Amino acid sequence: MLMPKFARWRQNGGFYVKQKMGFSEIVFVSICYIIIIFVCVVTLYPFIYLISASFSSATSVMKNEVVLYPKEFTTKAYRVVMEYKGIWLSYLNTIFYTLFGTLLSLTLTILAAYPLSKERWAPRKAMSLFIVFTMWFGGGMIPFYLVMRGLNLLDSRLGILLYPAISAFYVIIFRTHFQSLPASLEESANLEGANDAQILMKIIIPLSKPIMAAVALYYAVGRWNSYFWEMLL
């Protein structure tokens, strides 16, 4: 239900009653609206400028004449981009690494987090500490390059897919989520003769779809925006 200007709805005995706002509340709401509008303008303006500049002539852009709408409307920039054959191969590579890289990362993250969530696995605390340690101290660019070269993964699709394949942070998130699931579900499945792989595929993963979607989104965005390490490899 939309709220009238400078009024609010409060529940009273099962009914919603409209009440007029006081002066202090009006000031507070007005300030909130001003802040929200300011944030929206600051957030959206770069995109508006980008679109306007793309349809403007190079001279207008160089003279900073483009503000909100295109100056000397032209589609030359888009024609130049479309005529460049390398752009399509670049997009295909990006889509390939994003899709398959995200799938690989999500699979490995789940497989790493699931055993860490089981108390019956003796080395789980040591392995958890080892994984968390990698979040505090990174190996650095040169050791990473030397490792990839030693594995003969330079200039290969497999190397680009594997280097960011798993994130310690997301492993911890999945482990915590798996630990929050009721243990009785797995106990019942064990009584029915299900093994760990069947429990993971048929019980744990279906119950973890929301967190899988969120982590997959972060993995995909990271893959899509990644540039430096691909140039290094």
UniProtKB/TrEMBL annotation:
SUPFAM superfamilies attached to this UniProt entry: MetI-like (SSF161098)
tRNA-binding found in the keyword field: no
Record localization: Cell membrane
Keywords associated with the record: Cell membrane, Membrane, Transmembrane, Transmembrane helix, Transport
Top-rank taxon: Bacteria
Residues that span the membrane, as ranges: 26-51, 95-114, 126-148, 160-178, 199-221
Membrane topology: Multi-pass membrane protein
Record CDD domains: TM_PBP2
GO cellular component, one term: plasma membrane
Chief localization: membrane
One GO-annotated biological process of the protein: transmembrane transport
Chain ranges of the ABC transmembrane type-1 domain: 91-233
InterPro entries cross-referenced by the UniProt entry: MetI-like, MetI-like_sf
UniProt-recorded name of the protein: Sugar ABC transporter permease
